[in-house]
Every structure is written in structure tokens, then in C-alpha cells.
Design goal:
The chain is built from four helices and ten strands. The chain is an alpha+beta fold and 291 residues long. The longest helix has 25 residues. It is globular.
């Protein structure tokens, strides 16, 4: 009976998706692409350069293939104040120290910082909402489809995100990302302000292009990148506009490939196996027991 019921549910889902696709075609619109499932990438905590135009702060470390973080504070996208912050944080690294960020402090990671740091992502796609689930700390971003920002946005860690499809591209518009001592867009500590406006564009790309950007090996959490170059990849090109922190809009790219394996639980401060030690770290902890 369970097999029969499961088959019936699967058939119903397939019919619903087919109906949605036919409706879009009938209305003269392109079919909505299916981004659902698990995606991953392997490599360092960095953005890929944009196809053209101003790009993100890059690493000028003596050891660029390590996690030492020395941002190029001469990048023209930076205002003088932002450049000084990046320089100060890079100087700490060169002196053998570290600076706190959302990852090493076990805090929620704001976008676009989260795009650079997360190696596994799961997308839950529905008609009225798309959820982006990130493996580290099981973080979740909700995207309201075909909606609008409220007149008065209450700042939050992930901001207020609305989405729409433009052909085969999912466009995500985010404002209201909360600021604070750990407000940064990348691992170099590049700051942002309350004025930051983030536009992300998600689209499927051919597998060979994705394979050139993402090596077929295990992520840090043990799941394997699917090595099949015929399977489409997922690419996110985003643009940051913030007239307080940056002198101009700038863009970057993040590429994913299909991921093989189970969705895992990756904790931070609660997990002794993943408890990192950083200078100046202040991990979440209880000063007294709850009972």
C-alpha cells in the first residue's frame, strides 16, 4: 500500500510540474527551470571573477592558495574608509593574528558572504517561494516569488529577498541586510553598509563549463561532486551596490555542480569536532545552565 501511495504522490507531482510548464509555454513565457536538489563546489573561500566590469576584492597573501586572508585594499571599488578596514584586517593576518568573521564566530552568514563560504547548498523550489538551504549551521534563506519589498524593511541577517524569473534566470533582489561588527561581504573583511543592494542571477549552465570551474572531488563535508560533465551546472552571478561602502557597483560569480550524497548536519560551536580556535573569537556559549 505504501508503494502504491508513493507512486501516486510522485505521479501527482510530475503532473503538477508539467501543468506549470505548459501554462508558461501557453502564456508565451519560457518554461521555469528546475533548480531543485543539492549542489556543491570544492575549492577555497573565494568568488570567481565576473565576465566583465569591476570585480570583488582578491587575495594578495604571500600564500594565496591557503586560507590566509590579505585583501587587496587598492581595489578601486573600495571607498577610503572601506579600504582602510580591509588593510587593517590584512595586516592582522600578516602579523600572524586573525580577525573575527561570521564563520569563525559561529554566527549566521549574510549574503553575499555566505556565497563565498558555503560549499553545499540545497534548493527547495515551489511556486510561491524558493528556499536556499546552506549546509554549515543549516542556514536558510527564503525568497518570496513575484512579491515586493515592504515599505519599511526590518533589517535581518539574510535581508529581505524577493524573486522572479526572467526567462530561464532566477533573479533574486535583496535589501535590508543587517549590519554590525561582523558585517562583511567576503573573507577579507570587506565591509558593507545598511544601503547594500544585492542582485543575484541563478541560471543553469552546460556541464563542461561548470566542470572547468568546479573540480570533481569531495566537498569539505565528504559529499562528492558528480563527475558527469553532461549534467548541467548552476551558476550565480551577483552584483553589489552600496554607495557608502563602495565607489561603484561590482560583480562576482559562484559556480556549483550536482552533488552526490546525503544532506549532512554541520554544526559549529556545538560540535567539538568542528570547534575552531581564532584570536579574538567569541563563540556562542551559555553563562549559566538553563535548568
Amino acid at each position: 500500500m505504501r508503494l502504491v501511495a508513493g507512486a501516486a504522490v510522485a505521479a501527482l507531482i510530475c503532473c503538477s510540474l508539467a501543468l506549470v510548464a505548459r501554462t508558461h509555454v501557453a502564456n508565451g513565457a519560457a518554461p521555469v527551470p528546475d533548480f531543485s536538489g543539492q549542489w556543491g563546489r570544492a575549492g577555497l573561500f573565494r568568488f570567481e571573477p565576473p565576465p566583465s566590469g569591476p570585480g570583488p576584492v582578491t587575495n594578495t597573501s604571500r600564500f594565496p592558495d591557503t586560507v590566509e586572508r590579505v585583501g587587496d585594499y587598492t581595489n578601486p571599488i573600495l571607498t577610503p574608509q572601506s579600504a582602510e578596514i580591509v588593510k587593517q584586517r590584512g595586516d592582522l593576518q600578516l602579523a600572524g593574528a586573525n580577525f573575527p568573521d561570521p564563520r569563525n564566530q559561529c554566527r549566521p552568514e549574510p549574503p553575499p558572504f555566505i556565497l563565498a563560504l558555503e560549499f553545499e547548498i540545497r534548493i527547495l523550489q515551489r511556486t510561491g517561494e524558493i528556499d536556499l538551504q546552506y549546509v554549515y549551521g543549516n542556514q536558510l534563506r527564503r525568497i518570496r516569488m513575484n512579491s515586493s519589498h515592504p515599505q519599511h524593511v526590518i533589517p535581518s541577517v539574510y535581508g529581505d529577498s524577493i524573486g522572479r524569473f526572467e526567462g530561464g534566470t532566477l533573479v533574486v533582489d535583496t535589501v535590508g541586510v543587517k549590519t554590525g561588527p561582523l558585517a562583511m561581504v567576503d573573507i577579507f573583511g570587506t565591509p558593507y553598509s545598511e544601503s547594500m543592494h544585492l542582485i543575484e542571477r541563478y541560471r543553469l549552465i552546460d556541464g563542461e563549463t561548470a566542470a572547468r570551474a568546479v573540480p570533481a572531488r569531495a566537498t569539505p563535508w565528504g559529499n562528492e561532486i558528480d563527475p558527469d560533465p553532461k549534467r548541467p551546472g548552476l551558476q550565480v552571478e551577483f552584483t553589489v551596490t552600496d554607495p557608502i561602502a563602495f565607489t561603484m557597483p561590482w560583480s562576482a560569480v559562484v559556480t556549483y555542480r550536482r552533488l552526490n550524497g546525503d544532506w549532512v548536519e554541520v554544526a559549529c560551536a556545538e560540535n567539538n569536532g568542528l570547534y575552531f580556535q581564532y584570536d579574538g573569537a567569541s563563540f556562542p556559549h551559555a553563562d549559566k545552565p538553563d535548568f
